[in-house]
Amino acid sequence: MAREPGDQAPVWTCEQHGDVVPVGPAQAPTQKLLRQVALDSLVPVWIPHPMPDDWQVTGLQWAGSGGSVAVVVAVSGPHPMPEVGDEEPTVDLIFVAEQPGIGLGAHLAGLDGVDPGPLLAEKAAHDPAEIKLHADDHEVPLWSIPLVDGLAYVGEASGVWLWVLAWPSSAALALLNRFSLVDARNEDAEPDLPCGALTPRLR
């Protein structure tokens, strides 16, 4: 259980993990909230560009006080290649930018630990990057981490971790080849994004 700063400790603390960064609940996005998150963030606020047709931003979450050190952006839309009889044609993609040691990406991926560094170093030493995604005009190599019912990719972009989580996994490669990522903090980032209800993936 996390404890708020007080007389005994000037920072948030956890009995299991020691000093921790506070994480707020995920929120349904609005244009105003997205702009506010971008203004307050110390890390990139990644959004797809161009946004795929019929897709929406479906969740925002962030960690830190006095400037976000981790930001989550969820987007959802139709499966690009739905199978006959598919009961869940919706696809969810979650982008996480976080400073080292925060652990929000690992938490959303259902992994132990807070930092992908050791796992990523081992995979990178033996295997080439499985995909390369463009983020703010830079090519970012990413390595996969299997999830129970989805797929996660992780790498480094703009000096911090970049997580890309996808459900279902069958949609990941088809979608990630269709767009780049841009930082919503930049003035020329896409200003008016369609926003929808909060995705169950962040509830």
From TrEMBL:
Q: Which InterPro entries match?
A: DUF6758 (IPR046646)
Q: Which domain of life is it from?
A: Bacteria
Q: What is this protein called?
A: Uncharacterized protein
UniProt source species:
Kineosporia mesophila
